Each structure stands twice: as C-alpha cells, then as structure tokens.
Fold these 2 entries.
Entry 1:
Amino acid sequence: MPIGFIWQTFLETPLINLMVALSALTFGSYGLAILLFTVISRAVTFPLTLRTLHSMRSLQDAQPRIQEIQKKYSDPKRRSEETMKLYRELGVNPLGCLGPQLIQLPVFIALYQVIRITLGTTPESVLSLSGRLYDWDIVQGAIPLSTSFLVLDLRENGPIWLVAMVFVAMWLQQRISSGRTRATAAPNPQQAQMNQMMQWMMPAIFSWFVFIVPAGLGLYWAASTIIGIVLQWIFVGPGDFTWGSLVPAAARQSLGLKPAAPAHAGRPRESVDGTRTGTEEDRSDAGGEARTDDGHSGGQRKDGRRGRRSSARSARSQSRSGRRRRR
Amino acid sequence: MMFHVKHPRLPLVAASLAALVVATGCIGDTFSQPTGWASPVETGEGLLVQSERGRLDALEFTASGGLVERWHYPVSDDEVELVAIYATPVVEDGVIYLAGYSGDVVALSVATGRPLPDWGPPVRLDGHIVATPAFDGTRLYVATDRGRVTVLEAATGRVAGPVLDVAGDHPIWGDPVLQGGTLYIADINRTVHAIGVDSGEARWTQALDGGLAAPLALDRQVLLAGALDSRLYALDAEAGGSPLWSFEGDGWFWSRPLVAGDSIYAPTSRGTVYAIDRFSGAQRWSFASEGSQIRTALVLVDGVLVALDKDGGIVGLAPSSGAVLWRGTIDGDVLADPLVRGSEILYLTTDGDVVRVHPQDGRIEELSRLSLGSRDG
C-alpha cells in the first residue's frame, strides 16, 4: 500500500472526522474542539509521557555519577561503556524521551493538514471535505465549521500574541528542563552552550511555524506545551526553577531583592557507587554554577517543603532504581 | 556513543526539526488555491470559458467543429488578477459582466474582450466572489464571501446604494435568484434570505439545519435549497420561506436542483442522483453512480437526464425511472455546470478542455483547441 494511502486512511481521515465530531460536541466551536483534542491526545500519551518524565528525572539525578565517570575515565570508549552500564543499572533509557515526541510529530503534521482541509477557505476545499467525512450524522451535519475562536481566525496565520505565547511557553518548558540539569551537575562549557542554544532555538523555530501555519495549529501547540509544563511541574517538579530566577541579577540588585542562594541547597549528591558525597553548597563553593533565587522556593523555602520534596524524590528514585536492579 | 552520553536529546531534536521542515515544505499550500468552476457561456457563435485559473477565453467554433481563441481577458496591460472565476459570466446586449474570485467586477465587450470605456477599470469589492451575480437588466447584484451584496449599475459600474450586509460576514457561495423584486440568497451559515431590491430590507429569513453552498432554484413560488446536512429544502417563497418539505439524501446537495414537470432531480456529493416529487418531497427513484461526488448540474436534453461526476464518469438516465441508458467517461475532472447548446451538452474540464456530449447515445467528443490565427475552414 502506498504511504499516502496509509497516511490518509489511518491518520488524516480519522483525525478529520474526530475534529469535526469534537466541534459538534463543543457547540460548534472549532477552537474548543482543538483544545479538547489537545487534552485527549495528551491524556492518551500520558503513560508514555510519565515514563519519559521519570526517565528524565533519573537521568538528571544520575548527572553527578556521570560526571564522576567522565572524570575517572579518560578513554572515551571506556567512559561510554561505564556510562551505559550506569544507565542499565539505573534502568533508564537515554532516548526515553523519544516516544512522546515521535508520537506528537505525526499528529502535529496531520493536524496541520486537517485544519487546512476542514477550515479551507475555498469552495474546492470544502467540497473535497465531503469525500473525507464518515457517514455519521454528527459529522455530516457539522459542516460548515466555525472558523473563529475568541479573537482568533483559526484559518489565518498565527497572530503575534499567539506566537509570543508559544515562544514563552516553550522557553519556559526548556528553561525548567535545562534548569534541572544545571542544578544537579555543572555542565561542561560545551554542554552549557548547547543548553543555552536549545533554550532559545527550539521556541524560536516553533514560534516561526506558528507564525506561518493556521492559528488553529498554533492554538494546539500552545495548549499542548502548557499542558506539558503542568505535567512536568507535577510529576518531576520545577527543578531549580523559580519565578524569581527570571529576574536578571542586575534588575534584582536595582530592585533591592535578596541575593539568590544556590539552587538545591542541601540536596545530597551521589557518587558513582551511590554513596552521598556532599551537597549542592559544596558544589557551588567548588566553582559550580551558582544560580540566583528569590529565596521563596527550592531548598531556600522557609517552610522547607521543596527541600523535603527533593529529598523524597531522590529517595523514590533510589528505591525505583533499586527495584530495577533487583529485576 | 559519546554523543548520546553528553546530549541524549540532541539527535531527537535535530531529527524532529528536520522532519518538521521537510513536512511543512512538502505539504505546501494546495488547499487554499482556488481554481474556479465558472460554467461555459454561449455568445452567438462562440463560447466563453475559463481556460486557466483567472483567465476568460472567448472561443469561436470553426467549420470543422473545433474551437479557436478570439481573445482572452485579462491581458498583461490590464493589471488585474482575477485569481479564479467561479461566477458564470453574465452576457447581455454584447456586454460580458465578469466577476472574479479576487472581488473584481468588470464589463467587457463581447466583440473585443476589452473593458467598456464607461466602466473603466474593474470595480473591486470587499471579499471574494463565488456566486454568479443576479442581473435585472439594469443592475447587477454581486454577493461576496463576506456576506455582503453590492448593487452595481450595469451601464457604468457605479455602486448603486449602500452595500447590503445580508449574511453577517458568512460566505455567500450559492448563486442568488432574483424574481419579482426579491433577491433570494443563501449563505454558508445555514440561512436563506429574501431581500427587497428596492428597499434593501430583508423580507424574511429562514434558518435551516445545514450550510448552504448550492445555487438556489426557484420554481414558481417554491424555493429549492440544497444543503450540507444532506437535505434538499423546499421553501415557500411567498410565505416567509416556511419549509414545505425537506428530502434527505446520502450526501451534500451542492448542485443546482433541476426542476422538470412534477419532478425535481438533484445529485449529491456521494454520486447519487435522486428524483423527488415536487409537491410532496417524496423520493421517486434514486441512482447510485458509484462514482465520485457530483457538483455539476444535471441536465435534461432530448428526454435524457445526464449526470456527470467530478472524475468524469458520465451517465444518461431515463428521467421517469432512473434506468441507465448509456455510460461514458470524460477525460478530466469536471466541476463546472454544463452548457446545453441545442441538442448537445458542453462540459468544461478543470484543465480547460471543452467536451461535447451527445445525450441521445452518449457519444463524447473533445473539441480541439486551435491557437489564434490558425483557424481552419
């Protein structure tokens, strides 16, 4: 079977009908249908997302041990073997984050086509839609679809505010992810540069896509990213990210805010053999990256909740790793 | 391996981005390209056809039965781009009133294809034009996909009176009908409007359950409206548009219904042709072509009901029973309504080819197109 036929029959056409049906269920609002679809797609992929988030957390927790391996072994081959051995020992897959993204990619592309087909502006595009709809009353009676949602025309290219929203949401997601890495291990300059680049590049590229594709797709991406942030926050935690950390040091000084304390203060580190070798303060004192903080979050929170949560997570991670080892 | 160790997400991100770029590039902009489906029009000894997107060709029959181009519009000096032509050109007293998808309306000389001096350059309306304008002899009523109707003086192209905001920004794609000083208009947002042309006021509006994209048909006081909810509605035009009956088919009704005697013939987007009792709305017979969607209007010529689907499948049916008299295939896709010329039917393919069909036996001939200056015989 040609790939185009498979794509249309098993992904695009079902998605067209799903979107049209959702639109009918959401009082004829295609925008609400997109949001509902986003929630459904995130719910369907949630087990995979959860596994990825746990995998990400385990990887981040293992950063000190990976660094020790890198210090300990100069031979790249040996270093690599030891690292992979560590991954096996912890039961994590470094490519574990592939799953949800690989699933999201075809959905993103298919949704792009679906929005263009279902919200087509020309008579031909609407006429061609008739050949794609299932013989269901709920679907057949839903055409034409409403093309406006709040102030958005879902057919037109994404407006600037939506582009900005996607950029901010994706930047925040990248920031939270990369922040955890920085908090747990001081990256080498190359990796730090890479993190920095990705933090800006990914949001910039996706914002560009939102700018050139129909706003409906931008709405999906914005909603999906925001849901992703919420899931990450709930199931992995914000890492060393604090809202206060968004304020640059210079602005902090001029506003008279407290100087930031190192992130994850008091968090124990583990050596390659799993023994705890020190705290984040030690690492900061030893020249590790010292991040600014507003003093109301992370290990510096007065109620100590974050500190306990980090410790609890670390313990849970240990426990899970232990279970995997036993298997 | 080191790559994975240091930047486990990098290959994924790079692959994702590359795939996105390639996919976005491949998808292109095909869905937003209007092609137009204006019906061919007869002008004395010739034809007007949209031979390519946004270009109107005047063709002349040659002695051998072929076609030769007399002129086309626009030419490069006209500095106008019609984009596509959906509205069938209106021809009256040697003048062609042409409305392009771009929103431009122009009056051309049938003889030369040049804009009338009294009109000057095309009048640009706010919105795209899909519906064929209604014409009362002195004024054109041009509907746009922004739900508005503009009245133009046929002699000068001047806008007569205020622009009528009929459908509140909802596209008007179906051809309106003008009769007895009332303009009947259907919009895609499921509403039929009756507008008094003198006052510009709404005489009545009737909300239906399905979107309305098909041309309206008015037979005596019965207004027929094909809808996207798979129903054909019959409304009483004299009684506030109250529904007389509705008929449910197997797909969208996006073609002008054909009224002949006491029967109404209407095709659907699933390729089925229905014969319906004009008074009761009851089905008399149906014929499933097993082909693709039918948008072109059905025609009844010499006692044969001819239906053509989008992919070129053509069939001649007995109007009384739906029995198949003959079948054939036209080489090309067809969306434009046909032109009945005497006892023959002319179809225009989306490639701009003109095809002649003889309804008596189903013979199909593609009319050869000769270049300018090479007319024979």
Entry 2:
Amino acid sequence: MKIRVKGYLTLKKLMGDKAEISLEIENTTIKGVLELLSQRFGQDFKNSIFNPKTKEVHSHIKVLVNGRHYHNLPDRLDTRLKEGDEVALFPPVAGG
Amino acid sequence: MFGLMGKILRVNLTDKNISEERIPEEVAKKFLGGRGIASKYLFDEVKSGIDPLGPENKLIFMSGLLAGTPSPSAGRYSVVAKSPLTNIWAQSNSGGRWGVDLKHSGFDGIIFEGISEKPVYLVIDDGQAEIRDADDLWGKNVTETTGVLKEKLGNKFNVAAIGTAGENLVKYAAIMNDIHRAAGRCGLGAVMGSKRLKAIAVNGTMEIKIADKKTFQEISKKQYELLGENILGAGLQGYGTTLVLDIVNVCGGLPTRNWQTGVCSFAEDINGESLSEKVLVDAVGCFACPIKCGRRTEIKKGPYTGEKGEGPEYETVAIFGAMCDNSNLEAITMANYLCNDYGLDTISCGSTIAFTMECFEKGILKTEDTGGMEISFGNSDAIIELVHRIAKREGVGDLLAEGTRIMAQRLGQGSERFAMHVKGLELPAYDSRAAKITGLAFATANRGGDHVTGYVQGPTFLASPFLVIEESEIEDPLKENPAETKVVKDLEDALTVFDAVGSCKFMGMASDAQEISEIIAAVTGWKFEVEDFRKIGERIYNLERAFNVREGLTRAEDTLPKRLLEEPLPEGPAEGNVNNLGILLDPYYEFRGWDKTTGKPTPEKLRELGLENVIKQIYGSKEQ
C-alpha cells in the first residue's frame, strides 16, 4: 500500500528537502514508518526522531496521521496505517 | 520597593496637571504589576457605562514587575482601558524595550485622564515629566513621529506612539512602541487618539532594585541555559511565529476565506519557510530575550520592492493571507508594514477585510458601495488599498474602521452569521471547530475573541504542553470534554500572571510555576510561592471579569459566531465539526466559581480572592 509522508521545517531538510515522499509498504504502524525513514535518511534524521539513549520517539516531535496528532489516537505510535494515509512530521513548534 | 519602582504618574490631559503617586505595597503584593495593577486602578477609577472615547475613560500604561531585570524574555508592558471596539475591559501587551525604558525613567506606569484640547505628547526624563505641544506631529505616522521625537529629544529616548489610525479613532487602532512593536488588540490606540495624546517618550537611568541578587542570578542563568538548549527557541528564531502555520493547516484549523474552510491550499507559499526564503533579513528579539522570534524583513520582488520593516508574524500572515485567500507573501508583508506605520491591529484589520470580502462575494456589498473597488477574495491590491482607506477613514474605509461587529450590524442581510468576532474583538487564526476547547477560550476570554488569554492552541493544535500549569493535556481536540475546561481556567490564570510580571508567554512552555515564583520572590524579597502565583492570577482574572459584569456582560455574551456553532467545517481532518459550546460552559463556570445563570463571579469566590470591595459593585448592597 502507498503512504505519503511530508516532513516540515528542519525535518524536511533532513529528508532530502523533498516536499513529499511516497512509501510502498505493507502492514505497518506509525513507528514502523519512522523506522523505515530513519534507515533511508540516516543518522541525523534518526537522532532527530528517536532519543539515542531510550530509543523512544522524542516527546517534542509531532507526528500526525491525516491531521490527527498520534497521541490523540487510541494506539498512539502503534496505530496501524492504511492505503493513502498521510503522515506529517514536525519538529517542536510554538508561535502565534 | 524591589522589582517595581513603586511609583506611578497621573497625567490629567484636560488641566495638564501631573502628579506622582506611590503604589501601596499591599496593592503590589495582590496584583504584582503590569496588567494586574493597571486593572486594579481601572476597576477602582472608571465608572460603568462611560464612553470609551470620552474624557472619563482612563488609559493606563504599566510595566511588568520583572521588566528591566535581566530575567529572560520579561520586558513587557500592558496598556489597560475600556475598549472602544468591545465596550468592555481591555488589555493590550507589547514587548520591545519601551516598557523597560519606562521603568528606568522612574515609574512603573502612567495613568492618563481627561482629554487634551490640542495634540500633546508626554516626555519623561529621569523622573521629570512634562506635557508638550504635538501640533507638528499630528497627522504623522509612527515611523516619522518616532524619528522626529528622537531628533528633538535625543536618540536615547524611546517612543510609544499612535499613527493616523489612532488619531482618526479607528476602533482597532494600536499603540506602537520601538516603531515596530504593537500593543495591538482592542483599539487602545483610538483611546490614545481620543485624548489627543500622540506619543510618550521615555528615558532614564534609574535603578531597578533586586532584593536577592545572588538567587536571582542563579535562577536567571538556569533559565537562559534552558532556553539555549530548548529546541522550541531554535525553531522560533529560525522561522518566527509563522512556524506554526503548517501544523495548524495540517490539523484543518487554518481559517481560510473568512473561516469558510480550515484548509488552505497555498499554505506552503506563505509558511515560515517561505517567509525565510522570500523576505527575512534577520531575527530580532525583545529586551533580554534569547528567543528572537521577531523578523526584520525586506520585500525583494513585485510592486513593493525595497520596502523594509519588521514582521509579519503568524497571525498577520494567516489573516492577511489565508483568511483573505491571498497567497502573495509580499503583499501580506506590505500590509503588515502599513499597519505598523498607521498604528493598526493586524488581526482586527485583516479580519475586517476578510469579512468585507465575503460580504462582497455574497452581494451584500457591491462596487457602488466600495467606490468602485472589487473587494474580492485573493485581491491583494484591494487589501493594500483598504488598509490605507481604513487608517484614513476614506470612503468604504470609514465603515471598515468600525470593526466587524458594527459593520455586520449596519449591513445586516445575514452577515452577522459570518462576522467572526467575540464581544466585538475579531478572532485569531485558529479554527475552534478543529480544536473544541479553543472555542471555550475564545468565548470566555476577558478581552473578547482572543488566543493569548488562554493559549490553549498550545496543547491542541501544536501538541506543546504548558509546564506552567499542573496538567495541560487535551486528550482529543475534536471532542468536548467537560473535565478539560479546567485547562482553560488554569492557563488563563497563569498567563494573567505573565502579563502582570511582563513575561513573554512562550516562557510558559519552558518554565514551571515553581521557577517563576522563585524569580518573583528573589526580585521582590517577598515570600512568594506557587500558591501565590495561582491565586494572584485568579484574583486579577476575576477582577477583570467583574469589570465586564459591571458593564452589563452576562453569560449570553460568552459565545461564538454562528458560523462556528452551526456551520460544520466542509473538509479536512475536522470535517463535519462545529463548536458545541453548551457542553463546556457549565463545567468551566463551576471551576471558576461563577454563577451558571448570570456568569458573575460568586460572592464566595470574590471573598476567597480578597476582592470583597467588588461584591457591592456587581451585586448591589444586598450581597455585602
């Protein structure tokens, strides 16, 4: 199935500065996508997403699936993805 | 007194009398400074029902308790008065360094009373204040006024001024300081204009005393280190507050075409990244602020090439951009420069233009009403032209200068449904249908439709927790959860203290209440604990609410525009959602200790907060 991933701001830069990435991947979760992207984009990207000590996703990283923050979804990072889902990745943001 | 200078100036513009007053220590301890002390004076001295643009209104400037100390990001001041836009309590708050320079001139604040017959400005130089003739400044805009005053008085003077929008009593005129910084909201520039007060120039070298310097330095150093490490700061410095535009849009809550949808198709043309590429020259910060979220910019293409200034920030981009369906970032930046120079609130100005565009789209306004202008969505030339006309009150600009609420009342034909204001104050750029709890914050904020009173978009749209309150998590922004209304109350109270001490609200994401209480204790020498922090915020907030109640405000006014209550979002992640405010109001009132029928703070709550004198004012003598 096809998943679209958009990285924003500093994370976009670490993802080859591409506006959108398309992934062909079967039977995966949000965490699975983050791991796949880490393999593809290397250590700097990986360290931006995962805490090198705890191996957990940094609490300040925002991951949204179809416009919903992962921590608002019942299975959080273990949420299963489906065909056509759009994943958005943000570094810490504040403003307004 | 430590922290505060302990003195205010009272300036009567009718008889030109200037007097000095001490701030009683018990008032300082109960209200801290800034918004707190200013609101206390306003409540005590301004009667209900007065004309906001008449001589009985008072315009009160008050610097924060921490302003001028090296505490990071804490150099702000508040201006408080009755608003001509909303007819209720108003506070506007600004950074830069004017609030710091006011304190160095010897005073925490200034209360302006009456109305001057001729235009004047006030000069304060190291404790000496003087009213001077401003005939030659009247008619000039902010940049020129500031320049002329600096030439006359010396470059060391710092100026807060109104432009022609304030002189022309545009209902959302701003007071500008440091040329580019705005005490923008609620039209306090019009109050200043009504008093024919053009500017306040301040200078001084008076010391701001700190009670326990050693402890203060230790905590401040820790805070600077924290901000240095904080990736939040890095993002704000890199991209400015427009950093948030994409995430709000991804959540489906970026108000577009006057809130007809929450999804903007051209967000990438106007986002933080685009701003950095197209117009950014440098990041600029307020006094003692390592974050530097301000933008020094220059327009590099199109008809405004070569124009320079500061901004835009998020609200301005979202409102002159998405709200007006305008993807031209150069035009957005130019609209911002013009608003700064004329002295206009960009939120209310841009929202009023977006409302006008929808009226034009629906045929409620026609070219014969607009002097031939096609005020259609996306017309960036019309936006620029309208900013000029609003400030000068020329042609249709005279109608727009009254703000969205009055416009809708005059135009009728169902336009009230999409007049996007609460209590007369135009809403900020977060669609509350995509994060329900933000709707409660907009509906109940003391100054009307506002996002920084409760900043609940932090834990919702931005998924950024606020350390300054005990629990700020919102489980699901698309659900109305009565228990979470306490987050709104707690944030409103905590952020009220920020305005009282002069801190930037971004610090609320990096510092907790314990740390801020320790700073206040070290500066003032008072015993000051987290409990005091919480109670003082609640006290000030309730006093402001009482001001509004005394003006006749009831529960009925704690509401949202019909569009948000009845028109579901048509697309995006929040498609189909409206604000079911009714579910949230009762529990919020309960947490607040307000009467659920009338919306008044109960006598018990007011007694608990040491506001016994307020009871008679809002209940009459029977409840004493």
